[in-house]
Amino acid sequence: MKLLLPLKYYDDAGRVKPAVALYVCIAFLSRSLMILIGSVSVRENSEQLLALFYPEKQYLYISLAIAFPAFLALLLLGFREKIWDADKCWMFSCIKPLLLFSVLADLGLHILLANIGHWQFSWLIAFTLLLDSLTFYFLVKDKHTQMMLKDWKKSIQISPVAKPLA
User: Fold this and answer.
1) Any idea what DSSP says for residue 92?
2) 3-class state of residue 144 by DSSP
3) What is the pLDDT of residues 102-151, one digit of tens each?
4) Are 144 and 5 in contact (CB under 8 A)?
5) Cα(30)–Cα(71) distance, integer angstroms
6) Residue 149, pLDDT score
7) H helix runs in the chain, sequence order
8) Other C-beta atoms within 10 Å of 6: how many?
9) Phi/psi of residue 16, nearest 5 degrees
10) Could you give the CA distance from residue 161 to residue 126 in angstroms, rounded to a whole number?
11) d(CA 43, CA 41)
12) 80 vs 82: CA distance, rounded Å
């Protein structure tokens, strides 16, 4: 077996580990979920904290719906050992489409928000559109994630290590 990446990018079983940048993209796409969890954890003024980020509640709900596919992708990454043990490796082929759907929906939402604002410049919308575009580019072009998903589709059997006689 030829190593295509440096050794630090492989786990103990020889599988390609997810890149840190992939987790950063998922965190960016799941930001509304993190804001909701953060505001709920602060008992006092949780409504005001949510209103700071989402003045209209409908945008919170839309953002949560957009974050849900990215959160599902995170769950698939987190439960990879159980998925391998259950021999359901086909589930990993859903990770990239879930993330692409989430980033495209987020792009669409912020373009809609810019249209509602009559295309007046907003730093928040401009910055979010920039990050959405970079996230989309990363998800389409990243070779590490492509190699990881290709590697994870294969099922391997790990034999138990024999204990030495002593």
Assistant:
1) G
2) helix
3) 999 999 999 999 999 999 998 999 999 999 999 999 999 998 888 888 88
4) yes
5) 6
6) 86
7) 20-29, 31-41, 46-53, 57-78, 80-85, 95-116, 123-141, 143-152
8) 7
9) -70, 130
10) 54
11) 6
12) 5
**What are the structure tokens assigned to 122, written together?**
């907003």
Rounded to 5 degrees, φ, ψ at 62 are -65, -45
The amino acid present at 125, given as its one-letter code, is I
Q: Is the dihedral of CA 151, 94, 26, 155 positive or negative?
A: negative
For residue 81, the one-letter residue type is: E
Tell me which H or E stretch contains 113.
helix 95-116
3-state secondary structure of 165: coil
Report CA-CA distances (Å) from 93 to 47, 101, 146: 38, 14, 10
Q: What would you measure as the largest C-alpha separation in the chain, in angstroms?
A: 77
80 CB-contact burial (10 Å; exposed 0-12 / middle 13-18 / buried 19+): buried
